[in-house]
Amino acid sequence: MVGGGVVVTRFPPEPNGYLHIGHAKAVCVDFGMAQLFGGECHLRLDDTNPTKESDEYAENIKRDINWLGFQWSGRPGESGEPGFYNASDMFDKMYAIAEELISRGQAYCCNLTQEEWKAYRGVPERPGTPSPSRDTDPDRNMQIFHEMRAGKYADGEWCLRAKIDMASPNIHFRDPVLYRIRHVPHYHLKDRWCVYPMYDFAHPIEDALEGVTHSMCTLEFEVHRPLYDWVIARMAEQGELVTRNGALVRPQQREFARLNLTYTVMSKRLLLQMVNEKVVAGWDDPRMPTVCGMRRRGYTPGAIREFCERIGVSKVESESDPALLEWCVREELNRTATRRMAVLDPVKVVIDNWDAAESRLVELPNNPTDAAAGVRQVPFGREIWIDRADFMEVPEKKFFRMAPGQEVRLRGACIFKCTRCVKDASGAVAEIHGTWDEASWGGNAADGRKVKGTIHWVDCATGVKAEVRLYDRLFTEKDPLKDGSDGFLKYLNPDSLRTVTAYVEPALAEAKALEHFQFERTGYFVADEHDSKPGAPVFNRTCTLKDSYKPA
User: What is the value of pTM for the model shown?
Assistant: First the structure.
């Protein structure tokens, strides 16, 4: 009976950065497996490296997981919160386990430098050379280990190594470091410790103490699995494994391929570099592959989960195209997003035969795919804004929108015929004039004649100015790291953000933060999480209305 009949997984992020789309896949795998088998999934902040960790990162990790639609569960950790753990709360236990390893002759203190150790460790094809300290008496090792904790030594002066196999073809099995000295305050424990466990030592201990049954990792940890199993075996010898329903819980590490997304980078180090160098506006910049960035851009939790589901879980490394993610977003927003009209590149249209004092209301559906979404009333008057691309003074073949002498339907309102245009000093069209068919109110001709083109509009008298941010891919190259990580910034897309002043229908003036819309004939947009305010809306483009991508 594996794990005492209960599947227990864990999601163990390090609080040294914000979660990105790769982490989102791991979240879906870890929490999804627990849901599938009716088990539990823990959230564990693997805070074993004090040099880069902070409460800011920790709190945002929790927020992002909840936003993705998951909740950790299980026995409470030190905080009292069910299923939530900090690795640092287990430091005392880890230290005691390390002491027992020393007592049993299974670990020793070593003072070789990193460069010296590389020479001693050797290469996989030939056995390594044992450290001069490898056979030191356990009592002497214990004394040094205690002195390490007491702060007697400088960073890197000593470390604790597992005594395993210097002839193993797996380099990670050749007496790996278990503890190192770091005279750095811990964001959670302050100055309590100056020795910290290595991830490969801490991780299996955390899994075992929590009673985790399945430790899901990405493929780069596959070569670390023998060390994981070695630590679990030593804990079994020490009687430290959890018993559940009468069965001993022995965690198993299993690996899957990580999510690789083209036209972006997902190294937390490189993402932090872009934030620090102000290449982007922060971790939640809508161009970033972070979960908070995708939320601010308007991606939905359901679309991200669907994307991860379509990628699947495999042992084969592959790359995913952002177009698949955008397809998943469109599929959801097409069903759920409220429709509104917005003009992003405005030019004025004057209806010469319309009474200047008259204003009418046009009734339009909030979502034509959902009758329950209802309708809204949109003001319409003598002067309106249309998108500049919807007018052509000399129309091309099969251009059915606005042009001199050509009829076009103004969405939901009437049929309009352009008669002339007025240009400014530079020769650009500044104003379009024409007449409306007074028998066509509602959008259809009384005599049944066909009008091929239909365009959207915004009433000049009641339309609201809005800032609209048009986002595109952050990099121009499919693989920004093709020349290495040092020069990836040279592939930044100069057009990844373009900001325009638009006119939007009055209902959009009160858009709520993170409220989703389809701007008709334009794309999907979201009210900015931070900058959008009542009466002064700011919208981010989530994705364009259509794309050539077709999922398998």
Answer: 0.93
